[in-house]
Amino acid sequence: MKQITIAIDGFSSTGKSTVAKQLAKHLGYIYVDSGAMYRAVTWFAMQNQFIGASYFHIQDLIDHLDQISINFKFNPELGFAEVYLNGNNIEKDIRTMEVSSFVSPVAEISEVRKLLVKQQQKMGESKGIVMDGRDIGTVVFPDAELKLFMTASAETRANRRFQELISRGDEVNFEQVLHNVQERDFIDSNRKDSPLVKANDAIEIDNSNLSLEEQFNKILQLVENKQ
Ligand code: C5P
């Protein structure tokens, strides 16, 4: 069967990564969580005091981008690839509310986007890849055979993210999570460089009322039509 490129974009917590992982496993494709790469740069900026509650030294971050090396390594126990920054596994560190609160301003920086998009395009050179993010169908893989744009109501999405954080033992409240989801969506959709928009040829999937199984079967059908 023909190996294709699958680009999945959409707002925060629309279940992009869940379906992307299911597809990659089923098809034997590589799965790349591009959001993890923006989170890794954010984590780097936090560790180096380039970004914090009351400051953002953008130029310092830009000047140190050449010190960032991001890799993914498959963890067979988890069934997906974890993200590494300069050799350290930071998969858990990048999923906190703190990183979530800084990531969208970091992702607005064109120099950051240029660096990560180049790496993402390299990962997709041989096709057989599912990548999720905000600009995958528009900028990273404009020629992807299948482009999906996932949506769900803000409350559904915040509730998903809230359950995820609570199950990890994080102390967060629902209002805080809802605010973060809405704020990120706003910044991501309104930034100058590569804003989150649905590609003209993307298929929109609203999964507010779909079970995971229903969603997977619907998308698998779309994949099979393209292979
Ligand atoms: O996918 P996730 O919610 O982990 O992404 C975190 C943030 O990274 C997004 O809110 C967005 O600001 C940024 N991002 C991006 N472009 C991508 C993927 C993520 O700007 N392709």
TrEMBL record:
The keyword Magnesium does not apply. Keywords: ATP-binding, Cytoplasm, Kinase, Nucleotide-binding, Transferase. It catalyses: CMP + ATP = CDP + ADP; dCMP + ATP = dCDP + ADP. It holds the Pfam family Cytidylate_kin. One of its GO terms (biological process) is nucleobase-containing small molecule interconversion. InterPro entries: Cytidylate_kin, Cytidylate_kinase_dom, P-loop_NTPase. GO terms for cellular component: cytosol. Residues 6-224 form the Cytidylate kinase domain. One of its GO terms (molecular function) is dCMP kinase activity. CDD domains: CMPK. Its EC number is 2.7.4.25. It is found in: Cytoplasm. ATP binds at residues 10-18. Belongs to the cytidylate kinase family. Type 1 subfamily. This is Cytidylate kinase. It comes from Bizionia arctica. The lineage of its organism: Bacteria, Pseudomonadati, Bacteroidota, Flavobacteriia, Flavobacteriales.
